[in-house]
């Protein structure tokens, strides 16, 4: 079946592009001696995680215990929960996973350390702990200095916990190449200052985990970094493209959609809206619009309702008819994929099968 | 269990508020002789649809064939698909439903009429058809006049179709009470003009379907209207509240969330982000922020990442600690509910059970 014959809206992935994206990141990490612990939040799909592990990933990153459970159930071990998990029910589930395999957790407070220790001890498990520092995003993470050392020292004294290293999410490295070049300078200063504090304290830091898709290929510039955790690079999206961090041809995930109405002059309405793309604005480049129409890039997708996408065809040379099938690259592929229970697999535009987005909706 | 003891993030509904919202809309419709065919897109939950039917709803509205299938599987018949469905696979599924029960579909093109006719005929089914006109939103729908009559006449000649009336979505009635009062005047003119065209043609119009939550209680002002299809009113949300179309106490659905990090000065991070609220901006009132924190309304939720919500606590008098449980009213409840596989039921703050959001993710 051709992808244009799929019932719509449908989420699709071009396997050739996916494999190329995976190969490229794996090669970059090998070249620079960095471990790759990709974040599974983008694909939420064990089959893609397996492809990442097969290409030499050192483990997998998740944000939620439920995501970890899905990956473990698929036989994928070595999990980093890059999230300061809180709540006894979730911590008990996580300790159950940690009982039989390596589970790392990133934290930035003594309260979370105590709770993790309690949960680990109750099930005779061990959590490896990364202390999260703030590289400039100002989201989570301690100030990069003695505060991190103090938390690491407390962790070392708690039963069921083993201090393994440091973690940060450099989401502030964002924007044009020039903007990202400027921001990484500040990030490097913050890395230096946290490493210096651990050096002074004579504490070994085995893992220093960073990375994001827009910053990934700049990671070798960061002193002390041992691994990166990009997520979006598997599929890429318009945010990545407009930052110059991928080509349009590197966008592997697209929505196949159908024009369902041309009754209003100047409009073609497609059967994909905020419940199929997510309602994410574009946070890079023109910072306007809700997707890139592959067949007619000059026709803007100007607005979304839940199940309707508004194409402004007033200045389009193409005639839009009810039944026309279009393919659209989403603004933010991670929130888009999270709308779908399945993703259709394409090679050369032909449908090869489908994967279940098994960790979709694992909010806890 | 108290709602604050739920593993977070958790979607909850206060059943007392839900029932009051359902009763109020049912009473309004009874009082004004309007049928109520509520849109299930908000709750996507057969249990809520059943409560609507039990309160006298004339049927249910859906946007997707998959949603219709979920409602039918739960024993709920009388479905309006308020969407110009396109595609042979979906139309065949819809015809299968229509074979045994009343299924109405709204359309605005002859192409869709032909495709529906073909699908109905192949399975010896009948679709009731509503012709969609544009009441001013400029999304779908023919111009309100002779074009609608022409399409209705074509429908009347097609096998497997029965022209039943007119449909519009008055989503342009939006904003403050004053803005909505001004907009409904224009909507009324458009209703008059389409009714006049059918009158001139001597064609009977059995059903005239309109309504949305912000316009619902103004519906009796619209001449010729026979029914309304509000959706959001079951749960309400910040968009509804800031339009003055409900009180804050009428917001039945809330996210229970936990503070997971206070490491960055001026910030408290919660474990709910764009994958639990959806990334919808606020489209009414202050038009800023991503939710209303019930326990501390003056503390703004200023940004969302996928699994993180950013509380700006710089000017807050409250001390935020890791582990604090908060409840948040979302901007747009329809896209929010669509993130979850289950919704927890509360009475007096105590958890009574949970419903499956069975039609979640039914994108086709």
What topology does this entry show?
The structure is a homodimer of 364-residue chains.
Chain A: E1 10-14, H1 15-31, E2 35-36, H2 46-54, E3 60-62, H3 65-73, E4 79-81, H4 88-100, E5 103-107, H5 110-122, E6 127-132, H6 146-156, E7 161-167, H7 177-201, E8 207-210, E9 227-228, H8 238-242, E10 253-261, E11 267-270, E12 292-293, E13 301-304, E14 309-312, E15 325-329, H9 333-337, E16 342-347, E17 350-356
Parallel strand pairs in A: 1-16, 2-9, 3-4, 4-5, 5-6, 6-7, 7-8, 8-9
Antiparallel strand pairs in A: 1-10, 10-11, 10-15, 11-14, 12-15, 13-14, 16-17
Instruction: Specify Rg of chain A, calculated over alpha carbons.
Output: 22 Å
Spans of chain A of at least 5 consecutive residues whose pLDDT stays below 50 are none
Structural class determined from secondary elements of chain A = alpha/beta
**CA-based shape of chain A:** globular
The count of domains of chain A is: 2
The level of helicity of chain A is 25-40%
Element order of chain A: H for helix, E for strand = EHEHEHEHEHEHEHEEHEEEEEEHEE
CATH architecture of the largest domain in chain A: Alpha-Beta Barrel
What's the main sheet of chain A like? 9 strands, mixed
Estimated share of beta-strand residues of chain A: 15-25%
Would you count the extended β strands of chain A for me?
17
Which oligomeric state applies? homodimer
The total of helices of chain A stands at: 9
CATH topology of the largest domain in chain A: TIM Barrel
CATH superfamily of the largest domain in chain A, called what?
Alanine racemase
Indicate the CATH class of the largest domain in chain A.
Alpha Beta
């Amino acid at each position: 079946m051709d992808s244009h014959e799929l019932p719509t809206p449908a989420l699709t992935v071009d396997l050739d592009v996916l494999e190329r994206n995976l190969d490229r990141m794996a090669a970059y990490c090998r070249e620079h001696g960095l471990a790759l612990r990709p974040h599974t939040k983008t694909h939420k799909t064990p089959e893609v995680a397996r492809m990442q592990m097969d290409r030499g990933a050192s483990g997998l990153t998740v944000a939620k215990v439920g995501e970890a459970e899905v990956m473990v159930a698929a036989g994928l071990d070595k999990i980093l929960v890059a999230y300061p998990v809180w709540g006894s029910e979730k911590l008990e589930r996580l300790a159950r996973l940690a009982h039989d395999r390596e589970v790392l957790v990133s934290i930035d407070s003594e309260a979370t350390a105590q709770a993790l220790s309690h949960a680990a001890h109750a099930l005779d498990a061990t959590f490896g702990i990364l202390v999260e520092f703030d590289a400039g995003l100002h989201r989570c993470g301690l100030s990069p200095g003695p505060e991190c050392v103090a938390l690491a020292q407390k962790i070392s004294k708690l039963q069921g916990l083993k201090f393994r290293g440091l973690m940060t999410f450099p989401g502030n490295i964002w924007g044009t190449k020039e903007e990202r070049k400027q921001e990484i300078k500040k990030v490097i200063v913050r890395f230096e200052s946290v490493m210096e504090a651990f050096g002074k304290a004579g504490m070994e830091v085995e893992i220093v985990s960073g990375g994001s898709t827009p910053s990934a290929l700049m990671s070798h510039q960061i002193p002390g970094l041992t691994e990166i955790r990009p997520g979006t690079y598997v599929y890429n999206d318009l945010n990545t493209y407009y930052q110059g961090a991928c080509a349009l041809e590197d966008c592997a995930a697209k929505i196949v959609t159908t024009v369902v109405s041309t009754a209003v002059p100047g409009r073609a309405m497609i059967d994909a809206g905020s419940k199929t793309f997510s309602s994410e604005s574009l946070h890079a480049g023109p910072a306007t619009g809700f997707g890139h129409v592959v067949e007619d890039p000059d026709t803007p997708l100007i607005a979304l309702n839940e199940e309707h996408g508004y194409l402004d065809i007033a200045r389009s040379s193409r005639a839009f008819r009810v039944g026309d099938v279009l393919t659209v690259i989403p603004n933010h592929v991670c929130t888009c994929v999270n709308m779908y229970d399945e993703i259709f697999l394409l090679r050369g535009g032909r449908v090869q099968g489908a994967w279940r987005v098994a960790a979709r909706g694992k909010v806890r």
